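If you are new to this repository, start here. Below is one unmodified record pulled from the training split, so you can see the exact layout before writing a loader.
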Amino acid sequence: MIQDWKDITSTPDLNWVPCFDNFTCTILQVPLDYTDLSIGNTTVPFIKFSSTNASAEDVLFNPGGPGASGIIAVKNGYKTILSVIGSRNNLVGFDPRGVNNSGLSLECFPNNLGAKIDFIIETLNRPIDDSSEAAIYDTYLKEMGWGERCTAHQDPKQPKQYANTVAVANDMRYYSELRAKSLGLPVETSKLWYYGTSYGTILGETYATLFPDRIGRMLLDGVVDSEEWYSGSFLGSLVHADAGMKTFFADCFAAGPAHCSFSGNSTSADDIERRFYTLFEQIQKRPLLADVALTATPVTVTWREIKYVFFEALYDPSLSFAGLADTLADLEQGNGTSLAMLSSQADLQLAYNNSQVVYADVLALSEIGCIDAAGRHNVSAFEDYLDYVHEQVNISWIGGGQWAVATAGACTRLDIKPPQSQLFQGTSGSNHTSVPILFLSNTLDPVAPIESARKESSRFAGSTVLTLNGTAHCGLQNPSVCQHQHTQKYMLDATLPPAGTVCGRTAIPFGSTT
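And here is the target side for that same chain:
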């Protein structure tokens, strides 16, 4: 039983071996460029949780990012994912090019973990300080330096330009062909079965545009606007983030002090919200020192940590709102330790647990996004960068500063573009797919608004949007019996829910139900 990817030899075909107790694994050799095989190959690892159903299909899963590991997502969360797609089929996770165990590396800080942590904490994992032009300029310079560094650090045999979405879509097509080949079925008519969340919807939308007649099932959850993605400008992403933020106050009041520690003696959701902004202004003026006995060095917490933690909590309220409430309650008592620990959780994981996973998730998002955009959103001039920051902050108070850093400056000096054969040209008209696509969207998704799902659905004839009522990023983070009935039915026989179907949320945070 293999327990380490280093013990698996890459092969040109799907060669499954038992691994990690409950799974089988393979590392597939794929061409860097399918239009020119002479350029060479790279490797993509896959992990499979197999169904007992003899006629099971392989459903590929991508958890987003780009940069999140599909292997880790399936290995640790296969039960949750199977609750969405059902257990009749095999679940397959993979690390796309540039991610985790794949052959292509997006490394920018070789052999310097401290530099990685510093850059992530101080720049990528915090909202930009927009209090002055000088502060914005400081971040602008750091991101330019990062772009130059990431451009310079490349393996000439595995150039970063081949870590792009079009190339990964072709890898998925190639997988489906090899799967068909292994079953003795026609390769040229093989179909992809796929479930993608967040950026994984971009991967699905790209595949469906390039290979519309090669789809068995396609479930896209937490839908990102492909036009915004490939243009490199994300001004439509956060339109519901601040409304989603307000649900924290409403849910906290509904749960009461027994379940939401920040509820206190407040008499309404508005009262809780007012207390939050009063607290925020206090920390803005006077940051707090965390308990030095619990941190490696003296750590202060500021308004940036508050926004960072609150915005991140909107991705999965059922998991995060209770902890956020405890942190805010501590801050009211002058205790900044829990905020310091909560805001550094990802950073601590980066440093001490599995550095490549978190590092790739944060930096690959920017690198792959910039490569896909191919220079189409140019904010290399500071004036353009400044305007973009202000636009994002005006769109969302809670997330604009962080989103601006993640989506703008990273591309200013990253001089890497995909080859012409992997440059996405966009969709045209209404694509007819071999099986209609099912899109899922929450009404208050903080980074992928339901408008994006409706827009993408209009591009693919016969598709529909299943609306999920609530705040969360992706239906995977806002599950309900209604949702699972529709998604499992779709995966079974391609039946779409009736147009306009809305699933209410089964549970709200803080242990209360509706």
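Two things worth knowing about this chain: The longest strand covers residues 23-31. Confidence is low (pLDDT under 50) at residues 346-360.
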